[in-house]
Every structure is written in C-alpha cells, then in structure tokens.
Amino acid sequence: MDQATLLHLAKKFSLDARRADFYQADNLLTEKYFQPKQELVTSLERLDLVYRTLCSVLYNFVPQSGHPGGSISSGRIALSLMFDTMEYDFSNPQNESADILSYAAGHKAMGLYAAWALRNEIMRISMPASLPDERNQLRIEDLLGFRRNPVTATPLFKKFNVKPLDGHPTPSTPFVKLATGASGVGMASSVGYALGALESLTNPPWVHILEGEGGMTPGRVQESLATAATAQIHNIVLHVDWNQASIDSNRVCREGAACGDYVQWTPSEILYIHDWNVIVVPDGFNIPQILAAQKCAVTISNHQPTAVVYRTVKGWKYGIEGRGSHGAGHPFCSDAFYAAVSGFEKEFQTSFPRFKGDRTPEIIEQNFFDCLMTFRQALENNRPLSDFLASKLAESAHRLTGRNRVSKPGRPSLVEIFKNPAITPEHTPEELLLKPGQNVTLRGVLGDTINYLNHKTNGGFIAAAADLLESTSISNTNKGFPTGLYNAVSNPGSRLLAVGGICEDAMGGVLAGLSTFGTHIGAGSSYAAFMAALQHIPARLHAIGQQIKSTMTGSPQNPFIMICAHAGPKTGEDGPTHACPQALQLLQENFPPKSLITLTPWDPQEIWPLLIAALHVRPAVIAPFVTRPPETITDRAKLGLPPAIEAVKGLYCIRKASRTNHTLVLQGTGVTTTFVTEVLPELDRKGVEINVYYVSSAELFNLLPHEEQKRIFPEHLARSAMGITEFTLASLYKWLLSEEGRQRSIHPFKHGHYLGSGQAKLVMEEAGLDKKGQLTAILQYVQKQ
Predict the structure, then answer these.
(1) Angle, alpha carbons 186-413-451 (nearest 5°)
(2) Of 413, 747, 464, 731, which Cα lies nearest the Cα of 585?
C-alpha cells in the first residue's frame, strides 16, 4: 500500500493524522543513501543459501521438532540485521549497550540457532581471537543439541559438551535476553526490554523484534503495540515476516480483495493505526530492499516505534511452501530432502554424506554431525566469503563503540535495595510506621512502600495498572515524581506507565521485559482474580528466562511485581466475577523455588518486612495479595500478638497453646482480622485453648532450613489442624495433613457455590467466614478433637 492509498483510507475512515510515517522500501532504493554495495548483497545471498540449507538439515535430523517454513522465510531479514544493520560486539554478548534481536516469533528458533551457529563459524574461521569464551558461543557442534534434553547421552553430544537448545528461545543461548514463544509474550516483553534500555542509556540501543503476522493476532500484541506507540518507546524496530501462512491457513490476513481467514487487516494497516512508522518491503527476499528498509528504520527521528513489513513466502525454495512447512518438512533423508539441499551442494561444489545403516540414535547423530562438518568445510573453502562477513561484524562492534552509549545521568540504582544496610525487613522506615487504630488499606501501604523504595533507588520502579492506578493505590508509587503517565518524550520522569488500558495480559509481559533489562523493577496491579490468571504465562516465561540467566551468568534474578489487588471476598460489591478466591491457588507453590514468591499479609504492618524479605531473595516474580477495604491497625502488643517481623518466616505462631494440640491455620486479611479482634477474645472468655498460625508466604517458609520449618510448625500439629482461609482450601493443603482437618476447615467454597455480591461483611457472612461462622467451626473442631 503506497502513501497516497493510505492517506485516502485515512480520510475514508475519518482517521486522524498519525505521528508516524509510511515508506516503501523499493522507493528508498532510488535514494543514494540507501544503495547497498554489491559485495554485501552477493555475500548475504550466498549466506542465506547456506542458512536455508542448514535449516533443512536441522529439520531432517530433528523431525517433528521445528518450523522450517518460518525460519527460512525470515532468514534474509535476520541475516541482514546481524551482518549489516545492528550494532553489537560479537565478543561480548552481555553488553547492555548493544542492539539485540529478539525472536518474539519463538517458533523460528530453528532459524535463530542456524544463524547464530553460522555467525560463530564465520568468526572461528576468520577472526578466532574475537570468539568469546565457549559458554558464550553457539558453535556449529551445538546444533546437535537442537531440542535435546540436558540428559541426552549420545556419544557426540557428550564428546563435544553440546548445549541443549530449547524448542523456543531462552537466555541459555548467547545474545538471547528473553524467553519467548508463548503467544504474544515475546512482543510484550521485548517492548518492556526496550523501555528499560531507553530509560537507562544515552543514545539507547535498538531492540529489533522478529515476528510474523500470525504472531501479531493475539490480544496482548495489540496491547503492546498501543503501549509502545503511546509512550513513544522509539528504540524499537519490529520486523514482520508476512508470509500469510499459519498452522491452519494460507491466508491469515486480508490481502487485496481476498478476505483473511483470521483477521481483516494487513500488518501495515494495524501497525500504522497504532501510530507506528511503517516501512513496506514488497519483496522480502530482495536484499537491497531489505537493507534499505532496515537502514531507514534506524534513521527515522520522529520518536515513534517503527515496523518493517516484509512480504515473503513461508518455506521459500525449500520444496514445501505455505502452511505445509509451518511445523513439518521433508521425510528423513528422503529424495525431497536431498533435492532441497542440492542448491548448496552445487554452489559450494560439495555434497552431503548420504545416510546409511540402521536408524539408531548413534548412527543418526553421526550422520547429522557429518552434515554439519560439510558446512564447516564449505565455509573454510570459501574464505573470502567468511572474511568479508567477519569484517562486517568487526564494523558493527566499531560502530557500537562510536555510539558512546553510556548510563544516563541519574540512572536508577536497584543496588540500594539489596546493599543498603538500612533497608532490611527488621527496620520499617519511620515514614512507613503505622499506629494502632489508624485506618489504612493494604494496597495503600504497599503503594507507599514501593514509593519509598522508588525514591531510594532514584526511580527504579515503574508501575502500571489495568485502568486502576488510583483504585489499587499503585499510583502511590509515583508520589514525588512528575504527575501524569509516562512518555519517553514529553514526560520521561513519571513512574506510571499506561499499558494499553485494561490490559493485564500485555502488562505482565511489558513489566517483565522491563525488569529483565536490570535497571528497573516493573510493578503492575489489577484485581487478583485477573492478574493471577492473565499474567501467569508472562510470569512463567520471565521465571524461565531469569532462572536460566542466573545459571548461565551467575548474576541474580531480576524480579517484577504482580500485585494481586482487590483480593478475596472482601471485594464483595463486585461479585464473584471479580472477587474469586482461586487466584492464590494458581500461583502459590506452582513455580520452582525462588522463581515466584506469593505474599499474603493480613496486617498492613507486615507489608514492609514481607516485601523487603521477598526482594532480598531475588525471585523472578513477587505476587503480593492485598485487599481493597480499609483496615484498622491492630495493637499487636496489647493483644499479645508477635511483632510483624515474624511474618517473614512465611508461617508464624499467633497464639501457642500449652495443654493441647488443637491447631488453627489462618490465611487472608479478612478472616484473620475477624479472628484476632472478635473470635479470639471469645475463645479466651470460654477458656478454649488453641494453637493459631498465620500463613504470610508459603514460599518464604519453604526457603527456611528444614529443621526450622519443623520447629515452627511440627508435623503432629499439621496432622490435626483445621484452617480458615479466604482463598481456596487447596491453598492450605500444605498445612492441613488430615482429611478431618480439611473437612472442618472453612473457606469461600465451603457451601459449594460462588459467593454473591454486596458489602464485604455480608459476603463474609454468606461464606461463614464472619465471627459467628468462625466461632462455630472452631468450637465444633475442638469438641470433636
């Protein structure tokens, strides 16, 4: 679509003028500035032949485990970026100032590995001194590990200490910063990563994102596009491999007069409507057009993100095109496979070893390796090609140095949280101290706590909400910073980011990506009923990425905070659609240790010690559960309750019985406040003794030494305990080890239905979680025991 047509459509549909611009790559070639040298064009074309053939070989030896079509169609896009457009130092994959290529289209991982391995092989041949240590290389031998588990025991896998390469990209691969692949998360997290870079460095690095039109259909992608354009996160270039083929369709989008099977927009239209600069490459295999478009993309200066849309063919020259090549390919070592690699054999005057013998894992692996060595030999025999491409990587590193990308003045410093001796769970700052009788909300105290840390870290926290900044009190994060929403151009000092509106899906990905860069902590909030479910996938991918990064580099994980606000039945007026108690069950203990920590404070005084304790663990995700209605601060000392610092144990004893094993386990602010202020005095009046425990964080408890866990909560108590929770009964299973104890417990689903709407006290009464319901259940339990 040309500029005149687009403007005509804008008038037809009454679209206001955009801040963004629109370009045609073939027109750019008429300008002298965008004319590439023929040696570069020829070298990239020959390299793409090697790359396409390598993709064919990878699928052949790992059948049903890759996506040759999309890997092949995006090859010239990625190779042009890697060898000409991007600025990075091949010798230093950890350089934060370098441009990155993020495969949001994680199913193109086969292509990523092929391109990475060829780049490494070229440098091994022509500039071996530039190779990083082996841990930070992806060698051609490592391709034996494509979609292989670490426990693989085949001979060559062990001999060459092969890296197991995940089916979708993760930071186990050098230069990969984010775990991507789950629908739309790669786009959202890449936008967040770009924001972190933009916030942290002068002349910030470019974040190049590779995606396909099918990968643009998830809702969180539309939300991410809106976020980037609205906040003017302008160091992003999205590269769309528009091949019109998905798993089930060969016409994903509308094109011309033909309706799309899935959506009725073209990538150019949806991007331009979202206020992205758009550059159209009519022939996505034409190297000069590709280079011109990419050169243009990094020179546009209107502070809007940019997208390059390349019209390609999935499975180009592979022998299978369209959706048939999406996740499938030629049969193992078939005539069709050898036909697909024949172009390489002819061009480089070589031949791949034909497979012979039984199809045992060992024989297949040996043939796979021999094929990989054919590529090595071909590149070694064509030294001028390798030398030229290696020189392009050297130029890239030189250009990066010339960019002088340094830390922005006043850049945030998260180290304050972890190294400042004044920031400890034991010492609540004077500004955050609460007085008995004071009325506050858990959400408000959490917002104030993050705000305190925000000032200590010089703006290290950026917050977002699903159109609920004030309602969830996450807006408190921004006190003392410029008012209004963040904009990279007009309001960069604000710490409040609008993520597309009511968009929990994208929010999780964007804030996780922001945290991944490492200079900020993203904090997002919405109803717990939505956050736990809608952010589960981005939280899981962030946890995967951070765990791997920490293992690979030895550096600690970078947390983001998903605030599960308006949690539990006390959000009664909104009814069961918004006050669902299941949220905690989706997260609690459902991640590997130190990956995600849930926090369930009942007393606002527990917010500071719990949040600081969780931050000091350095998990990937912290999920505090906080309620909406105000709470009256309890005089813990007057009531004989332990100090709030006890909450950091994750489970602590509120009341210890001297003559009985009767035990009650509490979880949730509503039920615990009722118990402490109304039920416990009545039990004391009746002379009923009972051990009382509170669950403030199952994950923090799990991190205690096993002996300390047993000392705090002996197993014999767990085998007789009952529980009261405003979450689901399953969230207490860890603490209630008897069937009778579970049956006597009370929880929102006790009566077999979702709770109704109304004031919090009425909803609690309906659930049997009020004073009467608690007292009745406890007395029956004690009498039965």
Answers:
(1) 85
(2) 731
Its sign, for the CA torsion 598, 604, 609, 612, is positive
**Distance (Å, whole) CA 453 – CA 393:** 41
Same domain, 454 and 563: yes
Q: What is the DSSP letter of 201?
A: B
Q: Which of these three, 601, 631, 661, is where a domain ends?
A: 631
In this structure, are residues 465 and 432 in contact, taking their beta carbons and an 8 Å threshold? no
Looking at the chain, the number of H-run helices and the number of E-run strands are 30, 17
Token pair 């009325």 is found at: 439
- 137 and 228, same domain (yes or no): yes
Rg of the chain in Å (alpha carbons): 29
Same domain, 214 and 236: yes
Looking at the structure, do residues 535 and 662 belong to the same domain, yes or no? Answer: no
pLDDT in tens, 569-617: 988 889 999 998 999 999 999 999 999 999 999 999 999 999 999 999 9
Q: Please identify which residue in the block is written with the tokens 């669950």.
A: 695
Query: Tell me: the pLDDT tens digits for 527-544?
Result: 999 999 999 999 999 999
Rounded to whole angstroms, how far apart are CA atoms 366 and 355?
10
382, 421: one domain: no
SS3 575: coil
Domain enclosing residue 752, as ranges: 646-784
- Considering the domain architecture, whether residues 117 and 185 belong to the same structural domain is answered as yes
Which pLDDT score, from 0 to 100, does residue 23 have?
A: 83
Q: Does 604 lie in the same domain as 469? A: yes
- Looking at the fold, whether 553 and 623 belong to one and the same domain comes out as yes
Q: Which residues of the chain have pLDDT under 70?
A: 1-16, 30-33, 64-65, 785
The predicted model scores a pTM of 0.96
CATH number of domain containing 590: 3.40.50.970
Asked if residue 601 lies in contact with residue 624, where contact means CB atoms within 8 angstroms, the answer is yes
Integer Cα distance of 653 and 419 in angstroms:
30
